[in-house]
Write a structure and sequence with these properties.
Rossmann fold; four-stranded parallel sheet; 9 helices; 31% helix
Length: 270
Amino acid sequence: MSSLCTFPGRHGDLLWALPTVRAIAQATGGPVDLQICGEFAGLVPLLQQQPYLGQIIADPTWGIGAGWRPPTVEAGPHDRVFHLGYRRWPELPLPLEVDQTVRADIELPPLELDRPWIEPPPGYVASWRDGHRIALGWTECYFELKYGLSSLLGRHHHDWSLQACMGGGRWETEGDASPLSWVDAAVAISTADLFLGDCSALHVLAVAMGTPVVMVEPMEARWNPIFYPCGKSGGQVTLVIGGDGQPTFDARHTADTITARLAHLPAKGR
């Protein structure tokens, strides 16, 4: 059975939708084609490496401005088409929000969010085993705060060997970070012992590859449980919490959280 999935969300939403796509591939017995908005074509080289995905279509005529409406799909080679866009403003953790839109139409195996669903191209990995322990990934929001926090951690914890995974915009022009492709970011994160970042697509990428995450998120809207399907307090994701029990960007609490997480993790490739 040939199947097509469509999803209109941004990078992080798309990565959270992929466990459902993988479950559809398992249920239908073969790779699933995937249609995404053209503006997210940068993800295609990484998506093409995933065994449960077939053809990846970055549709230049379909953009995020279309909202949650599915694209026009011509009748053709696919026996089944699944439109995975949210049917409402999300109320469940994002992967479950996608999953529930499909289960009414097809019986699926469990999502298995604890089993990695993204793997980098094997040929890239060897060149990235450079000894970095922590992959670092931030958005531009609160740039000065995140730049300052990164600088403090790098200055006082040299043995952590931070490897920046973000680039472009102010991180490139003011923060001296070289832009990485999604493939390069995936390799850097997969070969690190830990990912440090905010609630953004790079943190979802880390979860998707099974790399533990320590998160610093200064934006209160990003504390919503829909963004934390793996929880906030250990296991896959640990949100840095201050003495008042609330999320914090204090460098001391961040360093303590990283130290505690690294103490329970085997070093990769060293």
